Amino acid sequence: MFATLKRIYALPTATRPHTALTWVLGYLFALGLAVLAAPRTALQGPAPWALALAYALTAFIAQKWLALPGAHPLSAVLAPLIAVFAIAAVLVPQPGWAFWLAGGAGTALVLGVALIWRPYRERGVVVALGARARALFPGPAPTGPLARVIVADPDELSARERETLRLQAAHGAALVHPAAVETNLKGRVDLDHVVPELVTEPPRIYAGSKRVLDLLLVLLALPVVVPLVLITALALAMAGRLWPEEAGPVFFIQERVGFRGRPFRMVKFRTMRVGSDRNGPMYAVDNDRRITRLGRWLRKFRLDELPQLWNVLRGEMSLVGPRPEPVQSAAAFAKRIPHYELRTRVPPGVTGWAQVQQGYAAGDEETRVKLAHDLYYIQRASLLFDLYVLIRTVTTVVFGRGAQ
Questions:
Q1: CA atoms of 210 and 350, how far apart (whole Å)
Q2: Cα–Cα distance for residue pair 27/52, rounded to 1 Å
Q3: What does residue 43 show for φ and ψ, rounded to 5 degrees?
Q4: Degrees (nearest 5) of the Cα angle 183, 185, 187?
Q5: Residue-wise burial string across 369-389, b where 16 or more C-beta atoms lie within 10 A, e elsewhere
Q6: Which of 275, 293, 294 is nearest to 231 (CA)?
Q7: Nearest to 296 by CA among 338, 235, 357
Q8: Residue 283 confidence (pLDDT) above 50
Q9: 403: number of CA atoms within 13 Å, CB side?
Q10: What's the pLDDT band for 115 if we cut at 50, 70, 90?
């Protein structure tokens, strides 16, 4: 039922095609532009079929990413489009770059019209009953056609609202609790309504595919990562000579809690003064005096996390997942925060959904919010979700902004 609400309210206009003909015409438009750009080679060999596959795959990924909280329509379309068409141009080079550039431009225009033209918020589609639901769907109550979805908490409704709910439900409207709407719009679960038995480890086929994706991406990134690691290590060594009070080892190694609660030794570049954790792990906050001068820059661009790719190669971590906590901190959180141990149902990650949505936690309440994000990720884990988190992380690294 909630997927229905997400499709008809939270997503833009034509996220789902009314007929297959709509998308076929869109493909023909993209192919027509490609033929104009490369008239001699456009229809030779596998080029038309490769363009059809790239077009369909881009539309599929864009639809999935648009359904995620905080997804910007432009990036949700352009990121997969650029990646898919670049790969297609490498695998099928015969038509030439003009063919793929024109086909990509046509696909972008089609998806722009189909996915991000205007919001699909027609009156009569969603009926909000009760204060909590009306806060999510402000504005006058719809009149006229029957609702397709009712957002309401039956326990807080007046007698008149209960009668409206009964009449709408009798005509086939789906009932969705406001908590479910908040979960997907905010990208985090309601910890007060978590059922531990429903937070399970992802299927083995996903775990295996994710492991293959991790290894592939790390190996592809090595030509860029290795020079960055060497330059960063040299910069840390030189910083220790410039500022003796910040001198110390280049790497920081600490025992963290991993998959299924198993501890492992995580490695990262040192960004704090030596002895900062002498009294046990503490929350990292903005303008933390424990952080070194160079460490602030490393954290801003996430360069301090690069050595953790070694943990990924060893199978102790994944590229995407809940951030691993120090053993001492995890034990303390498990005593104070209900369901905290559930975040180990998947391998820990170099980056994660909580990081791109929230950033560092600086207190128990923020740690609860981080847990809510982590459980949302675990319940909806997929390769497309992982790729979306990686794209958001790359944006933070490149531009030095967003969740840190």
A1: 14
A2: 7
A3: -105, 15
A4: 60
A5: bbbbbbbbbbbbbeeebbbbb
A6: 294
A7: 235
A8: yes
A9: 18
A10: low
**Using CA atoms, how far apart are residues 121 and 11, in angstroms rounded to an integer?**
9
Strand partners of residue 251: 269
Structure tokens at 48: 């038309």
> Under a CB-based contact definition with an 8 Å cutoff, are residues 345 and 378 in contact?
yes
The pLDDT of residue 312 is 96
The predicted structure's pLDDT at residue 131:
84
Kindly state the helix (H) or strand (E) to which residue 181 belongs, with its residue range: helix 178-186
Closest by CA to 34, choosing from 117, 114, 94, is 94
- H/E/C letters for each residue in 322-387? CCCCEHHHHHHHHHHCCCHHHHHHCCCEEECHHHHHCCCCCCHHHHHHHHHHHHHHHHCCCHHHHH
Please count the other Cβ atoms lying within 10 Å of the Cβ belonging to residue 221.
Answer: 14
Compute the half-sphere exposure of residue 209: CA atoms within 13 Å on the CB side of its CA. Answer: 11
Alpha-carbon separation of residue 149 from 24, 48, 65, 67, 233 (angstroms): 30, 41, 22, 17, 56
- Residue 267: pLDDT over 70: yes
For residue 208, pLDDT beyond 90:
yes
Look up residue 314 and give its DSSP letter.
T
pLDDT higher than 60, residue 119: no
> Residue 252 phi/psi, 5° resolution?
-115, 120
Which residue matches tokens 């363009």? 51
pTM: 0.82
From residue 125, give the alpha-carbon distance in Å to each of 120, 145, 149: 9, 8, 6
**Rounded Cα–Cα distance for residues 309 and 184 (Å):** 30
Q: How confident is the model at residue 146 (pLDDT cuts 50, 70, 90)?
A: low
* Bridge partners, 300 (sequence order): none
User: Three-class SS of residue 255?
Assistant: strand
Please tell me the predicted confidence (pLDDT) of residue 164: 81
Q: Specify the pLDDT at position 211.
A: 96
Contact indicator for 271, 292 with CB cutoff of 8 Å: yes
